[in-house]
Design a protein that fits this description.
The chain is built from eight helices and ten strands. The protein is α+β, with helices and mostly antiparallel strands and 275 residues long. The protein has a five-stranded antiparallel sheet. Strands 2-3-4-5-8 form a five-stranded antiparallel sheet, covered by helices on one side. Strand 4 and strand 5 form a beta hairpin.
Length: 275
């Protein structure tokens, strides 16, 4: 059997302004991925390399070395996250991830948390998301909106809900259960709960993998569809799209804001590939 490989069309990965980039991405042979590291709440403004950044790069490096493996994607993902040196912290490192592999007639995927995989075949475009994450994101945005409506600044609003968000994150990572939403951690069990599947791709196809920081253009800022965003990326490239996002975020920096979010900016990563 002849394996098909991905070809890189375009990519961008930019940090939240003033911070280090905790995202990572890669493409090797028939596999490609985007990783969105989750920094501990309350760590904004730190100039030191975060555990989340280290974890993202650790997983990315191990995925690169595993690119020729024929094992199921969740097994590859579990092995890639295993062995990371967990520091003494109440919040061990975690990340969202989207991982795809090109087969002879399909595109396999494994997704955890809020990285989006957008697949375009010959006749349609499909956005793949771990919908278990949606309720948590919506709850956090509603909480921020309530605090902003009371007259607080963004920083004050974030501090007001931070204890609740930390408690949720600790509970999530200590008591993850099936049917609840999962994130990737150094515990291989987390990878076993990824949302997995495959999309038919017998002819030519294009895949866009995006962190939620890039996906804001769909989810929040411009209310685009993923089909529209993919069209825009193909027409202009992903860097101009990111510049557009940063401008929208800048103009929406005051309170109340037109689209609620936990931070004005976020790390933003997009990887566009074709077979």
């Amino acid at each position: 059997m002849v394996n098909r490989n991905w070809a890189l069309l375009d990519a961008v990965s930019a940090p939240c302004p003033g911070r280090l980039n905790e995202d990572a991405y890669g493409i090797r042979g028939d596999m490609a991925w985007v990783i969105d590291g989750a920094s501990p709440l309350g760590s904004q403004g730190s100039r030191t390399e975060s555990v989340a950044r280290s974890f993202s790069r650790y997983v990315s490096g191990r995925l690169r070395r595993a690119s020729e493996s024929r094992a199921p994607l969740i097994d590859i993902l579990a092995d890639a996250s295993d062995g990371f040196d967990v520091e003494d912290s109440p919040l061990p490192p975690s990340a969202a991830i989207g991982l795809v592999r090109l087969g002879t007639d399909s595109c396999e995927f494994a997704v955890l948390a809020d990285v989006i995989v957008c697949v375009r075949g010959e006749n349609s475009t499909l956005s793949i998301a771990d919908d278990r994450m949606r309720s948590v994101t919506d709850e956090a945005n509603r909480a921020i909106s309530r605090e902003l409506a009371s007259g607080k600044s963004l920083e004050e609003a974030r501090r007001a809900i931070e204890d609740v968000l930390i408690a949720q994150r600790v509970e999530r990572m200590n008591q993850q259960v099936p049917d609840a939403y999962w994130v990737l951690t150094p515990d291989p069990e987390s990878a076993m709960n990824a949302y997995t599947g495959q999309v038919e791709m017998t002819g030519s196809g294009i895949v866009l993998l995006a962190s939620d920081g890039f996906g804001r253009l769909v989810e929040d800022a411009l209310r685009q569809t993923w089909t529209e965003l993919l069209d825009q990326c193909l027409e202009t490239g992903v860097v101009p799209v990111l510049k557009q996002l940063r401008e929208v975020e800048r103009l929406d920096a005051g309170e109340p804001r037109s689209f609620p979010r936990l931070s004005r900016h976020d790390d933003a990563t997009a990887l566009m590939i074709a077979n």
